Amino acid sequence: MRKFILSAAALLILTSGFASAQATNARIRVVHASPDAPAVDITVNGGKVLENLPFREYSEYLSVPAGSYSFGINVTGTDTVVATLPATLAAGADYTAIAMGYAGGGTPGFEVVVLEDNNMLPADNGVKIRVVHGAPGAPTVDVYVTTPFETLMGKNPTLSGVGFKAASGYLTVPVGNYQARVAVAGTKTVAIDSHRLVTWNNMIRTVIAVDAVGGGAPFDFIILPDRN
Hints:
By secondary structure, the chain is mostly beta strands.
């Protein structure tokens, strides 16, 4: 089970193509966060570009000319379409497409949410982190970011009332050791605990809360290495 531990072993650095991407191109990556959906293939304008992407996994950034596209999500190895997504991608921009919700008819239902990424380096060589609530089985939550193992008693949440599908802005923090905890909104009841987080200069990450396989608890994180 992938944990929210920002270490070299847990995080792959997606720098391929970043420096060389042309201004006329956009980049997009795909995340499979639907707990009851099978592995999927991804098509762009009908042509397969990713194959057998399982739950909790993600692609690297794909560089494509800016413009309008039709992205398809199919059950792997079949023509069974799970979802289609029309998207217009701007030159020089980065995007993350997240397949989330329940594919088997549960509520909330399956859909694809597209976020525009900001991979500009953080100020003062700091750390940028964005949080996404992608766990359909979890209620609205509060997010706490503290020093490691600091008590939550008397603490105000860093993010309050984060509902399903919601994404925070990028939070910029100094390099250091942290602990992130996700609690049921209005309580200190922790649903997801990152334990100790190790960060370094100019690190940018997107963190997505997800269900267990099939849906519901225990909840976990997907860590997307945006840059550095």
